[in-house]
Amino acid sequence: MAASEFLTFVPIFSELGNDALEKIEKIGSRKGYAKNDVVLMEEDAGTALFVIVKGKVKVSRNSGDGREVILTILGESDFFGEMAILDGLTRSATVTAVDESELFIIQRNDFLNLLYEHPEVSVALLQELTRRLRNADMKIKALSLKDAEGKVATVILQLADDIGKIKQGKVEIEKLPLQQDLANMAGTSRETISRTLHSFAKKGLVEMEGSKLRILDYEKFKEKFF
Fold this sequence. Notes:
Layout: H1 3-6, H2 18-27, E1 29-33, E2 38-40, E3 48-54, E4 57-62, E5 68-74, E6 79-80, H3 82-87, E7 94-97, E8 101-107, H4 108-117, H5 119-145, H6 148-163, E9 165-167, E10 170-173, H7 179-186, H8 190-202, E11 206-209, E12 212-215, H9 218-225
Antiparallel strand pairs: 1-8, 2-7, 3-6, 3-8, 4-5, 4-7, 9-10, 10-12, 11-12
């Protein structure tokens, strides 16, 4: 898939015409990353915006005691790196490839020029940042107030929204992160993740098939825990 075609699926570029997309294709570049490769490190200088062409990445920070805290997992058509570009500060988190991935990279000056030339990109970027902020607020509230089941449900819903696909009325997460990664996202233990997922399956809320997880009724699942 040509970059200009792929970029139509990226939220901040979806309203642009073919000429603008072709221009972005020319100023950007592609780079491949193997599984577990570090794309960028927390506190690095912010020099580029990254768009995921294929694969997945995890966004994480280290806690005061050295534990990894996974903030989110991003999939195809998602982007990251915009905060450091906009405020000129260092990276706020570490990004690591979860799978073999290909990223489309736009350098900082080129992206800033794009915002000036196409105000619709700026508006779309603000909308996307607002959506992410709302989701972060919801997650912080859930993880601070809810019990173990609620914390795990919050992470499952986040993954469903970020990388899930609707199939026959069900939301399917094709490749669920490792249980330790889920534990790092939920602020709990791997054993709690395993026990809670099996409990959800026993109650008929989810189905598990290998690394796949299906939420059988997304709205019912969401209402139960929120």
